[in-house]
């Protein structure tokens, strides 16, 4: 990993995703997320080369590509781990992790190397009313952006650099994801609208880049999500089961996988979009032949429109 200064004491470690850090002094730093388990050796090597010891971790959310070494650095380096209440609740036990990764079998928990440093309990739990947190004498601002996960946050460093985590995605990564994951699409969209109100000298997007402005990316993501939901509506026939819809998604977007967990992801991710469309009244969930089925609502409906953002501040 290459260590690159963003502004002041705020840096990023450059890999296939960005791992930000704030340098406390010549030998200590605070990590904002830790990447995956697979990135750990590279992450440690980069920190050692820079002569930096992670004394704290301020996590954006507890997904495996961000929390892969939360518990590891907590145990091996004595790093203070700080997480929001909602993320801490899902990370503290195998049951909490199973709630997040619904296709994870408790009996096979040890077979998933990406969860090797979990479960773990944070040293500092950030409560819902808190809008800043101080770690090792450094105060970070917090922007609450749930939706991608139950209690996701963006973190503002003292250099006025905003780390947005997975509150938004950039273009190439967005399209490669096919169905970007959100725990709640309605709340995720509300957080995107909230994020457009935030100004900063630099923005760090985990997936992926460092930017002076992010409004064009928010515009792009809103258009992309709108199109995906319009596409989903065309895949729902007179009566379509969730399984049939997953098959249709795989055919339409040429998803070819022999990994059951990958297939389960598409099934889980698409459900979030279906729930949003059902709440809007574009779909309804019915019982037919002892099965749950979705069907389009036969009414004159407005084309899906998501909140406009404007391209620049």
UniProtKB/TrEMBL annotation:
PANTHER family named among the record's database cross-references? METALLO-BETA-LACTAMASE DOMAIN-CONTAINING
UniProt keyword ATP-binding, yes or no: no
Q: Which InterPro entries match?
A: Metallo-B-lactamas, NDM-1-like, RibonucZ/Hydroxyglut_hydro
Residues annotated as signal peptide: none
- One Pfam family hit: Lactamase_B
The entry's protein name is MBL fold metallo-hydrolase
Q: What SUPFAM superfamilies does the database record attribute to this sequence? A: Metallo-hydrolase/oxidoreductase
Which residues belong to any copy of the Metallo-beta-lactamase domain? Answer: 18-207
Q: Which GO molecular function terms does the record list?
A: hydrolase activity
Q: Which organism is it from?
A: Evtepia gabavorous
Q: Which SMART domains match?
A: Lactamase_B
Highest rank taxon of the organism: Bacteria
- Which UniProt keyword terms apply here? Hydrolase
């Amino acid at each position: 990993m290459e260590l690159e200064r963003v502004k002041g004491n705020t840096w990023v470690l450059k890999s296939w995703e960005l791992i930000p850090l704030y340098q406390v002094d010549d030998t200590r730093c605070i990590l904002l997320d830790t990447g995956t388990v697979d990135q750990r050796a590279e992450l440690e090597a980069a920190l050692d080369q820079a002569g930096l010891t992670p004394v704290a971790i301020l996590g954006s959310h507890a997904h495996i590509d961000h929390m892969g070494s939360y518990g590891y650095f907590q145990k091996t380096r004595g790093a203070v781990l700080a997480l929001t209440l909602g993320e801490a609740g899902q990370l503290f036990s195998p049951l909490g992790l199973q709630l997040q990764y619904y296709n994870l079998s408790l009996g096979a928990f040890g077979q998933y190397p990406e969860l090797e440093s979990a479960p773990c309990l944070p040293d500092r739990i950030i409560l819902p009313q808190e809008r800043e947190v101080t770690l090792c004498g450094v105060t970070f601002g917090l922007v609450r952006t749930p939706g991608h996960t139950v209690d996701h946050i963006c973190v503002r460093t003292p250099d006025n650099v905003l780390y947005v985590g997975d509150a938004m995605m950039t273009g190439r990564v967005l399209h490669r994801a096919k169905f970007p994951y959100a725990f709640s699409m309605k709340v995720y969209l509300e957080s995107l609208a909230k994020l457009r109100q935030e100004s900063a000298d630099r923005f760090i997007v985990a997936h992926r880049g460092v930017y002076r402005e992010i409004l064009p990316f928010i515009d792009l993501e809103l258009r992309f999500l709108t199109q995906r939901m319009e596409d989903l509506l065309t895949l729902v026939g007179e009566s379509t089961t969730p399984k049939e819809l997953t098959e249709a998604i795989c055919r339409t977007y040429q998803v070819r996988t022999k990994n059951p967990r990958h297939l389960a992801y598409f099934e889980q991710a698409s459900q979030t979009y279906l729930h949003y469309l059902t709440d809007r009244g574009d779909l309804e969930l019915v019982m037919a032949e002892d099965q749950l089925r979705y069907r389009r609502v036969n009414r004159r409906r407005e084309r899906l429109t998501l909140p406009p953002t404007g391209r620049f501040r």
